[in-house]
């Protein structure tokens, strides 16, 4: 049976489109369906075999070993200058055909296609390829993912659905993501009723899963481009919290918990000694690692103890405040190496999203 393609949109960035795509792709495979994936317009890209492809495409390709050319799965990358170029040299039909041609090559021998959008429904309108335009060009039905809450998500879902409707794209329903667990039952009940008043369905409501937000030390290293001094075998340590250890050791100690990344000047050997002592004791905490700032490498005896503590030690040439700010500003997405996060995302969709209902409307 051939299904109509599903377009996963959102009311904004970082709402959970990729989490939904990971779970829905797995759900379709589990039903014996031959699924394909595409992100027609991408903004954040990685280079794979010389080609620039959206990072979510690389994630899906590595997770599910999908076939099809990566350049078809990610036909348009919005690089610096792209928007300005296409505003002044507008060729909407060429971009539209490029997306349609890539889609046609990917759909061969597929039962269903999952199309992931970029941002809210209007993103890309400036060069003629909004999410709604792309969904219309590929004859999709839309699924809208929003963040937790009541009033704001309902309003934003309605706004996105209206833009899809203006292009003749039906909206199957909405998924509410990152709902605070303490308010989960109330939010689900009220939003179900609120969307129902507008003739829409809530097809999924998922709680906020904090573990999905924790990066590894290695991911921080890559994003901020830090130097590795020690602990290469422990870069997969998850970081649950980050502290700036610029205070006296006796005050700092109370902030050390499991999976803490300690950011401290490299010459604060007193604080490093306390952290090593805590790490090598009999009980918790088990720290995540260190970022040493100021380009300052501790003396040999401290470095040797850091190696014995079996923790990753990274070096930043920036001052402590700047390094901490840069780390805290990173938005970490699920990456192919995040096997645990991928499994958790798939389990969350299977548990909280009505995948049977979604398929029944394709």
Secondary structure layout:
Layout: E1 6-10, H1 17-30, E2 35-38, E3 41-42, E4 45-48, E5 51-54, H2 55-64, H3 70-73, E6 76-77, H4 82-88, H5 92-106, E7 112-116, H6 131-137, E8 141-146, H7 151-166, E9 171-179, H8 184-196, E10 202-207, H9 217-224, E11 227-230, E12 241-244, H10 249-252, E13 260-265, H11 269-279, E14 289-293, H12 300-308, E15 313-315, H13 320-329, H14 339-352, H15 355-360
Parallel strand pairs: 1-7, 1-8, 2-7, 3-6, 8-9, 9-10, 12-13, 13-14, 14-15
Antiparallel strand pairs: 4-5, 11-15
Structural features:
single chain, 362 residues, alpha/beta, Rossmann fold, Udp-n-acetylmuramoylalanyl-d-glutamate--2,6- Diaminopimelate Ligase, Chain: A, domain 1, 6-stranded parallel beta sheet, 5-stranded mixed beta sheet, 15 strands, globular
What does this 3D model show about the protein?
This protein has 362 residues and is α/β, with parallel strands linked by helices. The chain folds into two domains: 6-209 and 335-360, Rossmann fold; 216-329, HprK N-terminal domain-like (Udp-n-acetylmuramoylalanyl-d-glutamate--2,6- Diaminopimelate Ligase, Chain: A, domain 1, 3-Layer(aba) Sandwich), CATH 3.40.1390. It is built from 15 helices and 15 strands. It has helices at 17-30, 55-64, 70-73, 82-88, 92-106, 131-137, 151-166, 184-196, 217-224, 249-252, 269-279, 300-308, 320-329, 339-352, 355-360, and strands at 6-10, 35-38, 41-42, 45-48, 51-54, 76-77, 112-116, 141-146, 171-179, 202-207, 227-230, 241-244, 260-265, 289-293, 313-315. The strands form four sheets. The chain has a six-stranded parallel beta sheet, with helices on both faces. A hairpin with a 2-residue loop joins strand 4 and strand 5 (51-54). Helix 1 (17-30) crosses helix 14 (339-352) and helix 6 crosses helix 7. It is globular, with a radius of gyration of 23 Å. The model has no long low-confidence stretch (mean pLDDT 92).
